[in-house]
């Protein structure tokens, strides 16, 4: 067997949104802006900036408007999560032209997360996608619990693929397919992503892994073999799922970029600049940083 | 591409030797025996028990004779490391019938580790292997710095393969090929292990990875794809390399067994019993336990 791996992959930085939304203490807006700016300067091409979630639910994201007005630039695809109709109304008032929407494959997860079944969520999200595409927005569809649900267990591949098809039919540009609780094994990663790659050959398919059970990088390697060339990662491994005991965060940007560079796969990301971005946010974090690269290379460790 | 993965793999537990030799504080012999006994009861078939290294160099291993007399059993292959001629003389006085020898591919590493070049080490080790094989011993050859050396950098595959060939020529039963400082990437794992598998189709080839850069499980996955069905692991991820800054230990037995079980690959290892073994040794360790499975499943965390 010969491994046919890509020469280049795209990293989508989700730390400022998916990562920070799980941080208990409010991080000053100026610190977030410094963090994001350094990440943008590292060469990252796409990034989830912030979220128009209700400030009552997630106070950490209450400065979304300030983040957008300070951090939008032309070099990076700046994505803002809009979790509902209200978020959609708010995005229309900003210069941001890339949005993320979010639905879980698992009804149980969806109900506990946003108090709606998957089908009811889709009834709201799909018309929003159609409307946003009509206005020229880039639409990223985030599919959570695509492998496992903390309540229901294993999710059937067919259910995940069916939901992805609905997003594609509505015009979504990107599918970000997430192992939300970090339970997928490398052969589950290979299997689902092979099927998605075959089913949607002309769309962006992004793999989103958590390192909860140390399988994050193994799952990325398996997804690469399945033809995936886009990965969500989070600087410092920020994030995590509030519903899973002991869950660590997303796979760390610097660990993924390091592995890829060691495999001869280009990402365009400067690791020293990622470390400098983490140095800025670190004093404000409530949890120790688990990323291996940061531990090995930070001057402050 | 279809993944052809094995149905069953063998785990070689190296925690009691490779793991504990890096622990600063002397762990009472009775605790070690309890730890080892629980590991044996978990279903592990092969294990590095202890080492006949000089007690002056590694005081932790000064109770090797007691460990052997308490822990030898018929169900498990109990391996004792013999680092030199003195160790060989000592093993002959015990009922143990399986030994490990140890040489680094890198001269620089070998010199700093045991004050000899690789060639000089081999001049001592190879006749010892021939003598031990003549007496019916099982001989495991541990090849360190098989991918990278902390002083020299990248090791040429040809150099590692050449050393392996010398061990095989002398009659070694097993090659344990180690990424001593946890630097190998998955495609380096796949490449070297594919070549070793092809070159030595009738010998036991074991992959030994450290999780220093979070690539441990990805490297195991790549080695599985290269046809490797034997893996060195260490309960609780004990161990590490004293020559590498921030180095974490060997890949954790429980994280590897968990991933394999989730891939439908049988190991015969009972994870609950591994957790109970770790519970016994944990109060005596100088470092926090980094294994994901233990953090998620230990009742004492």
UniProtKB/TrEMBL annotation, chains A, B:
Domain Pyruvate carboxyltransferase as annotated: residue spans: 9-275
Family matches, as InterPro entries: Aldolase_TIM, HMGL, PYR_CT
Pfam family, one: HMGL-like
SUPFAM superfamilies linked: Aldolase (SSF51569)
Keywords, alphabetical: Lyase, Metal-binding
GO biological process terms, semicolon-separated: ketone body biosynthetic process; L-leucine catabolic process
GO MF annotations, alphabetized: hydroxymethylglutaryl-CoA lyase activity; metal ion binding
PANTHER family, A to Z: HYDROXYMETHYLGLUTARYL-COA LYASE
Family assignment from sequence similarity: Belongs to the HMG-CoA lyase family.
Protein name per UniProt: Hydroxymethylglutaryl-CoA lyase
Organism, as annotated: Niallia endozanthoxylica
